[in-house]
Every structure is written in C-alpha cells, then in structure tokens.
Amino acid sequence: MLKNKGVNKMTENEWKLFLSPYEQAVSELKVKLKSIRQQYKENNLHTPIEFVTGRVKSVESIVTKTKVRKVNLNHIDSDLQDIAGLRIMCQFVEDIYEVVDLLRQRNDFKIVQERDYIANKKASGYRSYHLVIEYPVQLITGEKKILVEIQIRTLAMNFWATIEHSLNYKYQGEFPEEINTRLELTAEAAYLLDEEMSKIRDEIQEAQHLFTY
Ligand code: GTP
Ligand code: MG
C-alpha cells in the first residue's frame, strides 16, 4: 500500500497511481483473451470464448470491502484478489472447461487459485468458474505481479448473475427467504437452458456426422 497510509487518507492522485498497474493488467489481458477468440475464428473453429469484459474495482468498493472484510491496509494488493477482474462469457458449459485448460497451459501468468462454482454452486444458486492469477506487468520501475480474478461463465450464468447482482444491490442483500428461494429456482432454470443447449448441439453434431459419412 502507498506509504502505508490508510485507504481513507489516500488522495485521488495516490489512488490513481496505486490502480494504474491494475488498469494495465486488465487491458493487456483483455487483448490476450480476445486474441484467443480471434484465432479460433480465423481457423473456422467453434470459439469457446463468446466475449470478454474487464474492470478495475472502484475506489469506493475497495474502501467498503476493506472495511467489511477488515483487510490489513498494508496488504490490500495481496488480500483483495479482485481489484482487477476479467469475465469470460461462453456459449456452452463445456466451453468453460476448454477455456480453463487453455489458461492452464499459458506461461504469461501463474494460476494461484481455482474455484469451480459450477460443480459446487453457491447457496444463492450462483454458478461460474473462478480463477485467480498472478499476472506480471512491466512498469518503468520494474516488474509488478498483480492478482487478477477471472470469472468464466456461460451466457445463461451471466444473465442470472447480472440480474441477481443488480436486485441484490437495490435490496442491499436483504431479501426475504421466499425471494431467495425463487432466485435459486431461476438459477436452476438458467442451468437447465445450458444443459438443453449442450444436448441439442450434441444431437445436431451427431446427425451431421451421420450425414457426412
Ligand atoms: P468475495 O469476498 O466477494 O471475494 O467472496 P469470496 O472470495 O468468498 O468468493 P469468490 O471470490 O469466489 O467470488 C466472489 C465474486 O463472485 C463476487 O465478487 C461476484 O462477482 C461473484 N459472486 C459470488 N457469489 C455470487 C452471487 O451469489 N451472486 C452474484 N451475482 N455474483 C456472485
Ligand atoms: Mg474473492
């Protein structure tokens, strides 16, 4: 953390300097992940990446999270793993695992944490595959390793998570139990869509195979 100051005492310019390598990591990774999609397209292959988004956490959310989680102010960059965040959206659940395999093979960063919230969905109904990577950015002062959270999910998982998040934000997470139950059911409905789309794709591919040979 800058000069070991508390997050509350940091000036706008100090925040800008602190967040600058995170901005760099997010924009570099966006380019790299989009290039994976491009390469599949160029080879006329089904791309496991539909689209990629990225963001750096706002100062306001960083300050709130450090307070809620009682994060040591000197360790913000190691204790908050999602200051830099990337999201990869896929068409099919199988694509998610293909993307994870691709990322495991890379040598431009190191995976430091993996959480499969698809095999083990969260109590809310949330599903996604989470990776935390250690990404080296090259600064004029030398190399700095930045933690980046990558969430990989289908379009249906993203649809659910986006709306659930905005509802949660509006209601400040204080839903009545009945609403939680209904939201969990909508997550299951979204997952049924994913499963059905995969089945339909498999059947079409099988039919095409029979037709070609
Ligand atoms: P954080 O303190 O938020 O980092 O929680 P964590 O470290 O226990 O969980 P993890 O890092 O694996 O997941 C946190 C992120 O996943 C959040 O910032 C959200 O983007 C997403 N997420 C997790 N659970 C939910 C959920 O129930 N609903 C939605 N919409 N997103 C979720
Ligand atoms: Mg986290």
UniProtKB/TrEMBL annotation:
<dbReference type="GO" id="GO:0005524">
    <property type="term" value="F:ATP binding"/>
</dbReference>
<protein>
    <submittedName>
        <fullName>GTP pyrophosphokinase</fullName>
    </submittedName>
</protein>
<keyword id="KW-0067">ATP-binding</keyword>
<dbReference type="InterPro" id="IPR052366">
    <property type="entry name" value="GTP_Pyrophosphokinase"/>
</dbReference>
<keyword id="KW-0547">Nucleotide-binding</keyword>
<comment type="similarity">
    <text>Belongs to the RelA/SpoT family.</text>
</comment>
<dbReference type="InterPro" id="IPR007685">
    <property type="entry name" value="RelA_SpoT"/>
</dbReference>
<feature type="domain" description="RelA/SpoT">
    <location>
        <begin position="54"/>
        <end position="175"/>
    </location>
</feature>
<dbReference type="GO" id="GO:0016301">
    <property type="term" value="F:kinase activity"/>
</dbReference>
<comment type="subunit">
    <text>Homotetramer.</text>
</comment>
<comment type="pathway">
    <text>Purine metabolism; ppGpp biosynthesis; ppGpp from GTP: step 1/2.</text>
</comment>
<dbReference type="Pfam" id="PF04607">
    <property type="entry name" value="RelA_SpoT"/>
</dbReference>
<dbReference type="GO" id="GO:0015970">
    <property type="term" value="P:guanosine tetraphosphate biosynthetic process"/>
</dbReference>
<keyword id="KW-0418">Kinase</keyword>
<keyword id="KW-0808">Transferase</keyword>
<dbReference type="InterPro" id="IPR043519">
    <property type="entry name" value="NT_sf"/>
</dbReference>
